[in-house]
Design a protein that fits this description.
Elements: H1 2-41, H2 45-60, H3 66-82, H4 89-106, H5 109-125, H6 130-147, H7 152-163, H8 173-192, H9 205-219
Helix pairs in contact: 1-2, 2-3, 3-4, 3-5, 4-5, 5-6, 5-7, 6-7, 7-8, 7-9, 8-9
Length: 220
């Protein structure tokens, strides 16, 4: 009986180890190409347009991983804004699709924050639907901060959300200041971290610092 139990345990641990190694191998298959495209995208608008379809292909091939789908959603969001005043509605439709996949894989603080950016973008496209999209964005950002209070992007985007919300509706610069201040401090801590995975989101620091400065001046 003891030998049978030992054999069963050995098989179990062997299977678990093999499964873990396989999962790591599958992850490694998309990590390097994704990192390469993210690095390329730093070169500017044209590089982003070049990298975006490749990031999308990586996402489509990995529906169980939130990171590729997160970056695909963000890439098409940037394409929307690069398209000028008319924007790119198909890009935003794809953003929604990639975010839905990321949410199913792992609806964490970063994914929630990008979902809020989607609602904010929809608000910009359809301003008459502000009573619907504005609360949606706020509620999702509150959840993002609850999920991870140290996420600077969640703090920053919520601060910006309050900044652009009229005071009569519960917003304004004074309401935004605490969130933007927290975001700046968290961004500094994030930049100083030496053990942070290169694939985790890092965007938003410059915007947060600029918005914090504006909000402080306008609140006083």
């Amino acid at each position: 009986m003891t030998r049978l139990l030992s054999s069963a345990l050995a098989i179990f641990f062997l299977f678990t180890t093999a499964t873990s190694v396989l999962a790591q191998a599958e992850q490694a298959a998309w990590e390097a190409p994704l990192l390469a495209q993210l690095e390329l995208a730093k070169a500017g608008p044209e590089a982003i347009k070049q990298a975006s379809p490749i990031i999308e292909r990586i996402a489509l091939g990995n529906p169980d991983a939130w990171i590729p789908n997160y970056y695909a959603a963000r890439a098409v969001l940037i394409e929307h804004y690069l398209a000028g005043e008319e924007g790119c509605i198909p890009c935003i439709e794809k953003m929604d699709q990639y975010l839905t996949v990321a949410e199913k894989a792992d609806n964490n603080s970063e994914v929630l924050t990008l979902r809020a950016k989607y609602f904010q973008t929809m608000l910009g496209i359809y301003p008459m639907r502000a009573p619907y999209y504005a609360p949606k964005a706020t509620n999702v950002l509150v959840k993002a901060i609850e999920a991870d209070p140290t996420n600077p992007r969640a703090q920053s985007v919520l601060g910006q959300n309050y900044y652009y919300t009229p005071a009569m509706f519960g917003g304004g610069p004074a309401k935004a200041v605490p969130y933007l201040e927290a975001a700046v401090e968290l961004f500094d801590a994030e930049a100083a971290a030496t053990d942070r995975n290169d694939l985790l989101p890092r965007w938003g620091s410059e915007r947060a610092k600029a918005m914090f400065g504006r909000a402080v001046v306008e609140a006083n």
